[in-house]
Amino acid sequence: MFHLKKGLIRIGAVILVFFIGVYRKFKPEPKRIYFCYNQSIHQIYHSIFIAIELSNIQKDYQVVVLSTSKEASQIIEEELNFIPNNVKFIKIKHPGYNRINFSINWFVFLCRLRMHKPCAVVVTDYYDNVFRQLLLDTIWIYTFHGPENRGYSHPHIRDYELVIFPSEDELRKIENIIGPLKNYKILGYSKFDYFHYHSPNPPQLFPEKRPVILYNPHSEEQESSFFDKGLDLLKA
Fold first, then answer.
1. Which of 163, 195, 211, 229 has the fewest CB atoms within 10 Å, i.e. is most exposed?
2. At 157, which helix (H) or strand (E)?
3. Mean pLDDT, the chain, whole residue set
4. What is the edge-to-edge ordering of all strands in the sheet holding 139-143?
């Protein structure tokens, strides 16, 4: 059954690529670099500022941001309206556009319909593996999601033509696990660029002076900084 499903996906991908190719012969598009976002809105700030900067520092490639989620579109639109840029923003409307939960396979398929021979695709998750099944041949760029990511991510790192590391320390951690890498650049955390564009004055988060509850999302000690710093924060 697995091989049958895989074969059907392959046949469907070939047909899809053929029709996209025919369509683009009549309606060509410029050389493009894509950034794709879905309802996983926490991924936006890991790469949206890369898209903005890339659109401003060069003119050879059009930077395109695709969104298949209403909530993601609102966040992206706020940033693009606030910061000068040359990004082409495309909202992909569909029956699940307003949903919080939406199939990753449909997300990839909807984005794939918009792409024809992209020069590069920047991702912060591993949905590129689904893109590859749909015969999207391009340069894959991965920007890190968090410190060193988790174990399940390590085997995938070599699949990318370029990996953007947040620090020398994180690079060393990964290389100690999977060996030396050549396909990387150290650029820091893109999400910290938020403070480059927005006011450096920190907002007053709790003006009411009410008791604050510190929530620790990870119960496993190796996955959380709470066990090292939590008591200090509670005493502060």
1. 211
2. none
3. 84
4. 88-91, 62-67, 32-37, 120-123, 139-143, 162-165, 184-186
The 10 Å CB-count burial string (b at 16+, else e) for 107-122 is bbbbbbebbbebebbb
Contacts of 109 (CB under 8 A, 6+ apart): 134
User: Which DSSP helix (H) or strand (E) runs through 18?
Assistant: helix 2-26
- What torsion, rounded to 10 degrees, do the Cα atoms 122, 127, 128, 130 define? -150
3-state DSSP call for residue 170?
A: helix
Does residue 16 sit in helix, strand or coil? helix
pLDDT of the residue at 162: 94
Name the 3-class secondary structure at 61.
coil
Query: What does residue 163 show for φ and ψ, rounded to 5 degrees?
Result: -120, 125
Domains of the chain, first to last: 29-206 (3.40.50.2000)
The pTM of the full predicted model, rounded to 2 decimals, is 0.79
- pLDDT at 144 exceeding the cut of 60: yes
| Distances from the Cα of 203 to the Cα of 195, 198, 206, 207, angstroms | 12, 11, 9, 10
